[in-house]
Request: fold
Amino acid sequence: MSLKNTYKNYGLLGLLLVSLSLFLIPHSYVELIYGKGIFSIIRLIISPLVWLPFRLIYFLTLGVVIMVLRLFFIRRPLLSKIKRLAIGLSTFILLFYWLWAYNYRRIDFDSRYPLIPTAALDSTSLLEELQSATDEMLLSRPLNPSTVYRAAQLEDMIRPYVKDATQQFGYRSAGLVRVKELLPAGILLRIKTAGFYLPYVGEAYIDAGLHPLQKPFTMAHEMSHGFGVTDEGACNFLAYLATFHHPDSSIRYSAAMGYYRYVAGEYRWRYPNHYSELRAALPATIQHDLDDINRQMLKYPDIFPKVRDQIYNKYLTVQGVKEGLASYDKIIDYVRQARAQGLLDTH
Reply:
């Protein structure tokens, strides 16, 4: 074995040992070493990519396709192809963790903002929360809700508020997180997803088919992921804080609408008949907006929704998110507590 290959093998072994160690050391050490160190450096290094006007995911996808085709169509022994495929997949997974997913091993959001034990969310308290969410929609609805900002405008308008919200809970917000609309419209909605953060290119995406009223809140959620927040309920909560405190009424309305839909979904699931009555009693303007969102979502029906839910739920639990997909709904508990603590002011 050549000296060059020896150094290469030792280097790979060392990287593997360091990678494994981040799963074994306490969360507080990962917070210090990775969260406040390595991840911040990575974000700063990839930040220059944000100035590229195109969506980097298309180039990444093209590159992966080319590499896979080369692997299967270039003549090589089968064992060599299997080895290369294993190395490629291992590298893909290893990069995923180093570029972002070790954030799952940091101090979790429940430790940063512990939920104080309160009475169970019974019919009375849930109804009160639904009324609070309704009142917030009425208060924040702009005179002209048809105003539509371009994605790039929304990014610039929302980013400082997301950055403040994440820093409030101890996330170092290094670099500039981009969130771009992904085309064709519906490509994510058809797999029951509104957006995602892609560590390999350092930018996030939301579906271009989302209703304009959904985009600010969804964009703030994905931007939170870019700043290192992994928990879905926490990202929902931080997105709500960021957009709730925004001076632009259309962005505040997106927060109020997004939160209302979570609370309403929970109430509708528990008390469907009473929810129908409450829904019918909403002001005509609010009903129109909700119906408009529903009509937009119906343009892109889910493809294999149960399969997607099972896969993503398993992914979240493997990463240590005990609630799995149910973590999205923890926004209700966070908002209730934040309101009681005075973190949510009135407009």
